[in-house]
Amino acid sequence: MKKLVMCAAMTVLAVAAAGCGGGGGGSALSKDEYSARLNHICQELNAKNKEIGEPNSVEDVVQKGPKLNDAFQGAIDEVEDLKPPDQLKDAHERFLTLGKQIHSKIDDLIDAAKKNDQAAAQQISNSLDRLDRESNEIATNQLGAPACAEG
Length: 151
Known about the structure:
By secondary structure, this protein is mainly alpha-helical. The protein contains five helices and no strands. The protein has one domain (2-149).
């Protein structure tokens, strides 16, 4: 069960980080530009997550979880800077909202791991799975950023 919770957390971290992109500027991006930037940011996050490593135990969640979640927060910050085209605004906002919810749940998972509360960790993991599935669907099918559903 511990490995299941950790794997779920890692998958969610990588995917949720998908809610990232580096934009800026004043005008909206084209759909292709938006998707390319979002994909690029997710690829960078996936590489950071790989470098940090997947948690395989409760102790790993305590040790690696904060680093993974910090990297994820950086991605969320970047997606907030993106200026999506009008046709992607709703999906972008939902994706960003999911990313923030996932980030919060990961904090909860880290806290549960610190307390060695496996029941709470399992419940949080189940919530993360649901959020992750929706985030993956939006990234892949609406935002054109399949890299955000990898990791």
